[in-house]
Amino acid sequence: MAVSSEEFKAILSRRKYIFHVHTGYTDGSSTVGDYFEWAALHGYESIIFTEHARLNISYDFDAFLEDIRAAGRRFPRIRPLAGAEARLLPGGGLDISDDVSSKIQVICIACHSFPGDIRLYERSFEALLTNDKWDSHIRVWVHPGRFLRRLGLLDRNLENIGNLIRLGVNKGVFIENNVKDNLPPHSLLNGIHPDMIAVGCDAHCVDELGVLRA
Fold this sequence. Notes:
The protein is of the alpha/beta class. The chain has a single domain, classed as TIM Barrel (Alpha-Beta Barrel). The protein has helices at residues 5-14, 32-42, 61-74, 98-101, 118-129, 146-150, 158-170; strands at 17-21, 46-52, 79-87, 106-110, 138-141, 174-178, 197-200. Helix 5 (118-129) packs parallel to helix 7. The termini are far apart.
């Protein structure tokens, strides 16, 4: 079932959510059930799952979704949202299949690897952020600037990243404040309305969720 932007904003406004987690289906070590148990123990009301996805997926995505549904039945006070983290592709595409994207509510836009061409990076993000193909999903740009920081190029491109963040927000894209990587630089979140910012932990196990309570 689709989730509206206003519903997502309401989840964020209560500050009792867990956003951006990975499980043993990909490179995490905790199970879907582990996250529900941690959320119940610490009083969280919603978990937004964001498992890695690719065009050619290497695991059973339907089993992942069923795990979420089953755990949701065991913990009825916790609202789960099913999502996937997909890579930006040169030209503005997303590394996710139509089959997977049709089954989820949240798409996380990520850049983990990319050609070292800054102008291509900017053009690709511009194309993706303005592509109405994804408007039926909640879209969140996660850990903005991570790829550029890895290349040592973030500090000299802060203005350009800021422009892309504002473009995304104007198109209804939420921006992650990634507390694990401290991205984007907080100066780039100035002027962004708080209801368009999702605090994410990029957790690969429940032990990493402690950053939400720090």
